[in-house]
Amino acid sequence: MLQLIANGIIFGSIIALGAIGLTMVYGILKFANFAHGDTMSLGAYLALLFLSLQVPFPIAVVLAIAVSIAVAILIDHYLYRFFRTTGPIILLIASVGVALFLRNVILLFWGPDLTYYSRAIHLDFEVIPGISMNSYEIGIIIVTAALIVLVHLFLKKTRIGKAMRASSDNMDLAEVVGIDTRRVIIWTWSVGTALAVFGGIMLGLENGLRPPMGWQLLLPLFAAAILGGIGQPYGAMVGGLIIGIAQEVSTGFISTAYKPAVAFIIMILVLLIRPQGIFGGSKRWI
Amino acid sequence: MDLSGLFSYFVFFLVIVSVYGLLSLGLNIQWGYTKLFNIGIAGFFAVGAYTSAILTTPPAMDRVGGFNMPFLPALVIAVLLSGFIAFLIGIPTLKLKEDYLAIATIGIAETIRLFFNNEAWLANGVRGVSGIPRPFQHYITFNYNLFYLLLMVVFVIGVYLAIEKALKSPWGRVLKAIGEDETVTQAMGKNIIRYKMESLVLGSMIMGMAGSLYAHFIQFISPEVFVPMSATFLVWVMLIAGGSGSNKGALLGALVIWGLWSLTDLITNVVPVDYAVKAGAFRVIAIAIFLEVILLVRPQGILGEKSVMKAAKKQEQE
Amino acid sequence: MAILEVEDLVSGYSEVMILNGVSIHCGDNEIVSIIGPNGAGKSTLMKSIFGLISVKQGSVAFDGRSIIGMRPNQLVKLGMSYVPQEKNVFPSLTVEENLQMGAFIRNDDLTGSMDRVFELFPFIADKRKSVSGTLSGGGRQMLALGRALMLEPRLLLLDEPSAGLAPLVRDEIFEKVMEIQQSGVAILMVEQNAKKALGMSDRGYVLVMGKNRYEDTGEALLANPEVGRLYLGGA
Prior knowledge:
The complex is a heterotrimer of chains A (about 290), B (about 325) and C (about 240).
Chain A: H1 2-29, H2 36-52, H3 57-78, H4 88-110, E1 125-128, E2 131-133, H5 135-157, H6 159-169, H7 171-176, H8 181-207, H9 218-227, H10 233-250, H11 259-273
Chain B: H1 3-33, H2 41-56, H3 71-93, H4 98-118, H5 120-123, H6 144-168, H7 170-180, H8 182-187, H9 192-218, H10 228-242, H11 247-270, H12 276-297, H13 308-317
Chain C: E1 2-13, E2 16-27, E3 31-35, H1 42-49, E4 55-62, E5 65-66, H2 72-78, E6 80-83, H3 95-102, H4 111-120, H5 122-125, H6 137-149, E7 155-159, H7 167-182, E8 186-190, H8 194-200, E9 203-208, E10 211-217, H9 218-223, H10 225-231
């Protein structure tokens, strides 16, 4: 049981990183981005590409993030931008198209088979009695914690971070008071994509890489975002951990194949009981 | 391919087009008129197909059913069950913002697929159900596929006429009004949630019907058939390309898009096996780009009505 | 010299024009009020001046320079701020953060500007760390005004600054508006509360059906029997 919870924290960290970006895009650009999971896959595969070019791992991560951000901003500029006035559903449909596009581009270049960043085997060792992890997994938890602190500082302390919160509150007013909303949008894609790529690479480290890896994470991502109150990064962090733990603990009782269904059922329960999410209500972004 | 081969390919092609036509008509009720974003078409399609499969097959050792039930009663049950599941989904989501329905429907579609995938006792799991009987087979002395095509045409025309008639009724006018301006309709004192629920359930029932008819034609179903790409996304592209809000557009979209999809499939089959996966990926990329181009260039589709807003915008530019 | 000059302005939404040739101006350090019945296009006028609604015809000049087609973040740089009617604070941000957003285009230290705002509005100074969503209606209006002053504008556009406020709070807001004007800021204001607005204004316009029908000093408009009968609620 303890081990399942620990696994849940690892998996939950990955979900949280994805869900933060998803919820930010929802808060500021006001649409459910169905391509977010595939952005995670894209980042993971780009890291694989740079690693295969003998680039050291940290630099491969940075390059993967940079290229993914560029892709996200280009898609926004050439596609989503034109739908901002037509309402959230057209954006949603467009993002489903983008999701398929990204996934199949990955399939085209890297093929359908499971691949790994490295063939090296990392042995589990007992971190505390009853919980075993390998060095990757400890790294995932530490990096996620660090990123969450960074996101917090970014949103609370920087001018653009505050402007993002302001835009999430009221985009029209942000425009009126003289905030450069185009810059806010670029930053939103950048931060959301960077976190997604981190999440994607971690997922690749933990489970290996397959083209549908991110798409299959979409349901847990939405469940985490809705559980935390959609539009709220802090909620998404907590939501991610809860969904991750719930999914892993469920494997103690039912088939592991039902993990996505567990996320879905939690999501439906939240929608029934408290649709604004656990942190929803007037105090957004707090 | 000789002439008769071409003919039977064409008949087969049109049967599949009719199945997609039904899915597209069902989605048009939900999205085209009421702006309900159902992205779980595959789920309702699967429920219809599996219900019919389980009910009509002869008894099997290793799974539930079959019940040897005749075609029509099984079809009715399949349709009702699809509607019932749509009803359950509607309860938590319809009163919320539109995107929640999208997320919930894709969730239910995935859950249904996982369920059939893993619960082998129910429908044989990944191996699927085979030997689904062909309706009225003993009475048909000519080309059975041709008969099935006629049967499909009867269903498609029946559904089409029923929808058209329903949409001209006061009930249908309210549905259209919700799609055009929800707040105004609400202000008119209409119970929006109830109408949306009816639209969701009705559309999903038609999707279930499509599933049942598909199962009886192909005679074999497995969870693989109900992946989001072929069963959900293509239908969306069909409706958007054909013109959401137009039933003729929904049918035309099914024909055109399935035509394009089959054409690219022929190309995929020609290339060496090593490239088949890549060609398949390329095909999806092409259809995804196609969708985005339609959204950008002709969002109302081939036959879609221009909404009032768009007409106004046009005028503004002139 | 006029800081703002609007000439023959035609604008509206898609096919419906709401303004059909409005001409107004606002001098340096003047308070100008625009009154008129509901639906006359008062708010549309403000939004059109501030570039939120595209202008079909006519000219809008700030400081002698055309500002048509400019985005708000360019206009605030020129020295013009706009306070919309409602939902005019960011509810999840603190009072201080709201003020910082008013000076988004500035990179330097904001302490000086912020202190001046807090001096003018001691009420919100006490709540600088509170989340602005918890402020009262009056508090929010003060915060919105304060935020608009963060870039030390030369012209302030106010859309119904007293809307939804209790009479006592309303008077306080109007006093603050006078104080802002005395510090050297020109003010163009749309108001429902016409008598009060004209009473404190140098000049006023009566906007009817998308056109300015009357133009005079505030006092003269108040004294005009026709204006009084039609637009100031009774004789």
